[in-house]
Amino acid sequence: MRTLVLNAGYEPLAVVTFRRALLLVLTGKASILAEDYEDPVVGPQEILSRPTVILLNRYVRVPYREAVHVTRRGVLRRDSHRCVYCGRTATTVDHVHPRSLGGEDSWENLVACCLPCNNKKGNKTLRQMGWTLPRKPVRPVGPQWYITELEKPAPSWNAFLDAHAA
């Protein structure tokens, strides 16, 4: 079981095991915002529900982080694993401006793509193909991009992640 840890400002900070989360709550360093009542932790003196989201009581200053590095996994996640050209499930990434024509490996030049569209586009530009992008690819921002466990968030986390993204 995983638990989402929110900083005192409600921004996602980390994902920890439920044991670590319980320890933070029992020592008074965090409070529970959402919990799982179906699978409680049975202790010698009490029964506790497993926390799914906790909020730290004190603000933790996050050290400066460089920009999010571009990766295949990150591009697929940013584009919701959907091909930007046809909307089918994406399994690969495509350079909007081909590398052989000077395109670079950047967030602004890489998009999620299905294999048929990638093969069809090949080494051509969008203008040569007569295609357009429905939206411009951008570099993702926000603390949730530094936490790799947020690729598959638990359903109970959505309200907290959506509230922070707004």
From TrEMBL:
The keyword Amino-acid biosynthesis does not apply. Residues 70-119 form the HNH nuclease domain. It holds the Pfam family HNH. It comes from the Bacteria. SMART domains: HNHc (SM00507). InterPro entries: HNH, HNH_nuc, NA-targeting_endonuclease. Keywords: Endonuclease, Hydrolase, Nuclease. GO terms for molecular function: endonuclease activity. This is 5-methylcytosine-specific restriction endonuclease McrA. It comes from Neomicrococcus aestuarii. The lineage of its organism: Bacteria, Bacillati, Actinomycetota, Actinomycetes, Micrococcales.
